[in-house]
Amino acid sequence: MKKILVILGLTLFLASAANSAFAYSTEGAMYYNEGLDLYSRGEYGKAIESFKSAVAKDPDFVDAYYNLGALYEFLKSYQSAIASYSKINQLDPNDKETVYKLAELYYKVGNTERALFYVNKISQTDDLYSKAQSLKNQITIASQKAAAKNALSTVNSAVPQNKSIVDKFSGPTGLAVDSKGVLYVASYTDNCIYKVMPNGQSQLYSKSPQLGGPIGLAFDSMDNLYVANYAKNNILKINKAGQIYTFMDKITNPYYLIVKGSYMYITEQGNNTVIKYKLY
Q: What's the rounded Cα separation, in Å, for the pair 98 and 251?
């Protein structure tokens, strides 16, 4: 039976150590009992050194590791306590009391993954099962809260501090910028295209019966504007003079398009395909 330094009294420790089933060396037992005595006088730092000396002499001195871990835990040095209890776990993996301690300590330091790892080692047949399940519920809730907080932090960090509103449009969809830095905005609801000048002023660029649910926009190297005309199943081309042509027909629900070099790429939502077209 392990001796819990912070909870049990000195007399019990000394009696138990003398009758221990483990074959500890005389020198190791001396440092161990010295540690108990120092603890009883409130000399915690010296007690820790004595327990360390005990395990240095007897690397398998389980009671010394346990008291060392308990004293570190009492002093809230949780990482050092984890190291001590981990040594016991290596020596005796079936010691569920130590397994529970490790789960508890990892929970205290915020490592819910390791805490769950250890608490799940306690089975229904173990005396600590009910207590372990209660701890597991706490760990699970803490883990879920941490995940939600991290997700919120990620969302918040993605919002630029210098955000500003360009203008308001009805059902805005695709965007494209020409060689002069003019922004073009497709309006799916109004079946038209707006342009926003570099100074922020917006104006109607194109409104035609040919436009039907415009979404994707893209410019080629000559500033011709291409429009993914979703509702009319085609691709329109608007030249620099503002004239509109049907550039490609029978494209089922074109959604997004880009122009890269001499090629245009179109997502055809109706057929779940991507079309590659050579412009020139």
A: 67
